[in-house]
């Protein structure tokens, strides 16, 4: 029996994984809303609903190649928070029922836990402290750090790959599958951090997504996902990616599946000040001293 090659494996992979932040919420407009309404119940504003509806139209244009093909399907994952589910509902208006092969509520992609009711003046001090301490490791009192969110998003990613490997999404490989994850700004950033093996320092320089802004991880010709297949260098720079990170995305767009960014020439430099060139000295420990 012939072992499946890279081309055969690519057929079963989603063509795109699209990360979408929810639309504008009442908490985005007035931070005091969190002091009286539980975070998970914060609703969208009217503007947020319009943003989500527009995002749905834009995403449909992406997955259908601007309407030039009908050979595609979508599968949704959504955070259980009210603003995410409402955003999904508006996004979904752009998709015919026959094109949606499934949807799943996923608690692991929920918003960072900031504690229970959030008192405005106290949260202002906490967020100022977070900037001094470091956004990734600072743990909110009675809540989570970005590192905690990273852990649960990592667990979600493992489940996502099992769903894909075992075809729990009922994907017909004759069609293009697009996974659309409707979530939150931080959850989306740590998803990208985990996926592309970005360091904590690189994460600290990332900018948050705007309401209903989305990021598209698209499958390259040889089986690696990359932001650079769809997005421009200028967009990625605006999001806070460094020149090295952008170069990595460009490399991934044409890399063979499974190679990993450790092969990029700059990757080791992230961890070392500089490694010496190979020389005969490498074998010094094998020399016998007489």
* Biggest sheet character: 6 strands, mixed
CA radius of gyration: 21 Å
Q: How large is the share of residues in beta strands?
A: 5-15%
> Could you tell me how far the N terminus lies from the C terminus, measured between alpha carbons in angstroms?
57 Å
Oligomer: single chain
Residue share in helix = 25-40%
The dominant shape is globular
Q: What strand order characterises the main sheet?
A: 3-2-4-1-5-6
Overall average pLDDT:
90
Q: Could you say which structural class the secondary elements and strand pairing correspond to?
A: alpha/beta
Low-pLDDT parts are: none
Give helix and strand order, one letter per element, not per position: HEHHEHEHHEHHEEHH
Question: How many E strands?
Answer: 6
Protein name: Phosphoglycerate mutase-like protein AT74H
Pfam families: His_Phos_1
GO molecular function: catalytic activity
Binding site for substrate: 21-28, 83
Short description:
With 290 residues, the chain is of the alpha/beta class.
Architecture overview:
It is a single chain. With 290 residues, the chain is α/β, with parallel strands linked by helices. It contains 10 helices and 6 strands. The chain has helices at residues 6-11, 26-29, 46-63, 82-92, 120-133, 146-165, 185-196, 200-204, 233-238, 243-252, and strands at residues 16-21, 72-78, 100-105, 176-183, 214-219, 225-226. It has a 6-stranded mixed beta sheet with strand order 3-2-4-1-5-6. Helix 4 links the parallel strand 2 (72-78) and strand 3 (100-105). Helix 3 crosses helix 4 (82-92) and helix 6 (146-165) packs across helix 7. The mean pLDDT is 90. Pfam families: His_Phos_1 (PF00300). This is Phosphoglycerate mutase-like protein AT74H. It comes from Lactuca virosa.
